[in-house]
Write a structure and sequence with these properties.
This protein is an alpha/beta fold. It contains ten helices and seven strands. The chain has a five-stranded parallel β-sheet, sandwiched between helices. α7 crosses α10. The protein is globular and about 50 Å long.
């Protein structure tokens, strides 16, 4: 069965570009191409897509609202932000809201389709230029850091730390299972425990929080 994708983008030419990228991929199905937050919310509830591909700047709100709404309206959907904006605040806000991937919208049809497939396979696709924004912020030390006196940093098991480190390197869940010689179900269990301990709901957020807390380091 193809993976069902909802596209939310207010600019008509860009919306057509994203829609065609999804339609051109043999393993993806476009369920709707919406132009507003309201239309996106309606489509999430009615269509229950597997993937939400949303712009950040929308006429009646932001794509971040839709990313946050996914947990309640379409809990099985994975979110990816697609935007022409490259500012650090937008990137961090989208990741904290639950976006598992973040791409600039000027990618080719093949690049967009492949990124969605990487997303559903357990990866966290992110444009190199966007990755540089995130890393620059972390390297500057602008992001919140662990308070050594707080004593509230979560404790991960050795295996959870291994899984989290591989997630940070971009490996999908099946790849992690193969590398660690464990079942995919066991990987999923470890990831769920990691999310619970870090109080997050996406791979991107888990990596972001783990770096801030000093649990892992980005080379």
């Amino acid at each position: 069965m193809p993976h069902r994708v909802l596209v939310v983008e207010d600019d008509p030419p860009t919306r057509r570009h994203l829609a065609r990228a999804i339609e051109a991929h043999p393993e993806l199905e476009l369920v709707r191409a919406a132009g507003t937050v309201a239309e996106g919310r309606s489509a999430l509830a009615a269509q229950q897509p597997d993937v939400l591909l949303t712009d950040i700047g929308l006429p009646d709100g932001t794509g971040v609202e839709l990313i946050r709404a996914v947990r309640e309206v379409a809990p099985k959907a994975i979110s990816m932000a697609v935007t022409a904006l490259g500012d650090e605040k937008t990137v961090i806000t989208a990741i904290e809201a639950g976006a598992a991937g973040y791409l600039l919208k000027d990618g080719s049809h093949d690049e967009i389709g492949d990124a969605v497939m990487e997303l559903v396979a357990g990866g966290s696709p992110i444009s190199p230029s966007i990755a540089r924004h995130v890393l620059r912020r972390l390297h500057r030390g602008d992001a919140p850091t662990e308070d050594p006196d707080a004593g509230d940093a979560p404790t991960l098991t050795k295996r959870e730390h291994e899984v989290l480190s591989l997630i940070a390197k971009g490996f999908s869940f099946p790849e992690i299972a193969e590398l660690l010689e464990i079942s995919a179900h066991t990987v999923t269990t470890h990831v769920r425990h990691i999310y619970e301990k870090l109080e997050v709901n996406s791979r991107g957020s888990a990596v972001y929080e783990a770096v801030n807390l000093g649990l892992i380091q980005m080379d």
